[in-house]
Amino acid sequence: xxxxxxxxxxxxxxxxxxxxxxxxxxxxxxxxxxxxxxxxxxxxxxxxxxxxxxxxxxxxxxxxxxxxxxxxxxxxxxxxxxxxxxxxxxxxxxxxxxxxxxxxxxxxxxxxxxxxxxxxxxxxxxxxxxxxxxxxxxxxxxxxxxxxxxxxxxxxxxxxxxxxxxxxxxxxxxxxxxxxxxxxxxxxxxxxxxxxxxxxxxxxxxxxxxxxxxxxxxxxxxxxxxxxxxxxxxxxxxxxxxxxxxxxxxxxxxxxxxxxxxxxxxxxxxxxxxxxxxxxxxxxxxxxxxxxxxxxxxxxxxxxxxxxxxxxxxxxxxxxxxxxxxxxxxxxxxxxxxxxxxxxxxxxxxxxxxxxxxxxxxxxxxxxxxx
Length: 371
Hints:
Elements: H1 2-10, H2 46-56, H3 69-72, H4 120-123, H5 125-129, H6 142-150, H7 153-162, H8 170-182, H9 190-195, H10 204-213, E1 246-247, H11 268-271, E2 280-281, H12 303-312, E3 316-317, E4 324-325, H13 343-354, H14 359-363
Antiparallel strand pairs: 1-2, 3-4
């Protein structure tokens, strides 16, 4: 437990002050969670969260009234998708796995492969208005969607309470959605109880798995660090990254020179630098047992399968259009080191990862759909 406490603490407060918060609700955070921040331009209030909750579960926001945010971010999956690639409102399949929204208030950056998207309001532009691929498909249908919302008297009341003296608009809808997403904070996993001093909160197997996770033999905590189990995090006491939040974990090597499939090549698409091929944001491991399938493209089915990829130092795709040995990818992270586990050790590591599941979060009626 000492190793866990040390590593949980290291990711909190090792960089510079970000500034004042705009949070007007009690988040009731545990001691090992730092204070998050919300922008002054969109304070986190009970009214904005409640409006955002209604919008998050409402299909009327999509072009054809078929898709809600919750369609691809399911509460029972810790607000991730149980599909490898989500389907948009028009049936178009995406190219990236929809990650969990748990603790998104701390996430910096917010997307798989864009280092400059650090505000949830900015991130929402993609799923709301993006056309490649189409998700909500709102572009060109803004007036129709607004009319649907205005016709509901409940929304008129909710908007007026959340944003008094401001006319109902999709911009305010975006702000409210951001507020609801910021309220999705997960901190009630058995491992949290264990860290708080209850040694019986997790099994002996999970405790052994914890020691493996934090060991130098595996080195998992170099990237999956701190209270959020990721280096892609910021709070009221942090605003810069102690280490890069983007890594190539050797899932592909389609040309023998490190290339990833053209549909999703990682940070290189933004930076243009060859070294960024296959580099994607380190996801949080909180609730990871609830969020299968895994990987930026949802191509890994289970926790055990992912652990075996890490053991091998990458994945060897033996056939098909993506054939290639990711273990030999020249852009693999320096933190991806080969190691060997026994079946028992692998089971212990899975048990530890399962202890990060916050079942209360996945079933909390306060976060569920209101319709």
